[in-house]
Specification:
Radius of gyration: 39 Å
Oligomer: single chain
Order of helices and strands: HHHHHHHHHHHHHHH
Structural class: mainly alpha
Shape: globular
Number of strands: 0
Helix content: 55-70%
Largest sheet: none
Distance between the termini: 147 Å
Number of helices: 15
Length: 333
Amino acid sequence: MSYQPEFPEQEPLPLEASHPESTPQPALEDSLQALQYEQPTEEPQLPTEAPPLFDTWSQPEPPPEVRIPNPAHLGILAILVVAAAIITGLLTQLAMHFHLFGVSTVEQLANNIPYGIATQVLLYLLVLVLCLIVFPLLWRKGLFAGLQWNGLIAIQQSGKLILAAFGCFILAIIDGILIPSKGDAPIDEVFKAPGGAWLLVAFGITLAPFFEELAFRGFLLPALATAWDWFEEQSNHTPRLPLDLDGHPLWSQRAMIAGSIAASLPFAAMHAAQTGYTLGPFLLLICVSLVLCWVRLSTRSLAASTLVHASYNLILFVLSFVLTDGFKHLDKL
């Protein structure tokens, strides 16, 4: 028989005493109601980071936007041209080593018009490929966007641009009358070579104007105009001209005039060897280049100056074809 301890019996507590929380406490309820209806008007904003010690150090002025193309980009283009020329030279040496098309010496290469044109085409294409790789990485935009190709403008204004090409042709006639050049220019030998005339026509109305405009009106002219404005800004302590809505530079009138003249001199000098270093064609090429620069700057379209250039060359070739009975009698030129 197990032992069970006995506890004295306790009377049950009243309901109010057993649940003290149910007893009404007026003071506490009033306090809770007051807290419930008091809404803060504004939440305090805590600083996310400590204010900088020196504002000028911690918040520098943003650098000005780069004007493209500029003289630095022109220097990069020169490096790419040298690299393409080295590659072209190596490939030409390799072709002569294997007697490609029967050419094995430099003398044969110089007298082979199709071979020479093919070498020049190869050089141009290599430069274009390198430009398509390098400059979009620098500019964060495509090559033709950076150079303001704007082909739609050339299409819309094609009638006026062809008239500008005829204007260049009239300049050529006036130049030939005032300053007649001697015959037997080196370019005449190209027309005498078998098939050379047609190769020169095809090259002269397609690749030649395209790449010449790319170099002289695409890179050289804008770079020279930008350099002129930059020099005036630094000398006179004037603010730089803003970029247009598309991010392209705007130039002063003095910069456009100086850049056009400076770009036209090497353009004419590049063709001087073809025309036998005569004064008349040299002055004509300067005038034609000035027209091309004006077209490029006024339309802000590299495609427009390319169309004028190609149309002008086509007019000259058509006239030569008619006057020489299909390039058969070059003495009539």
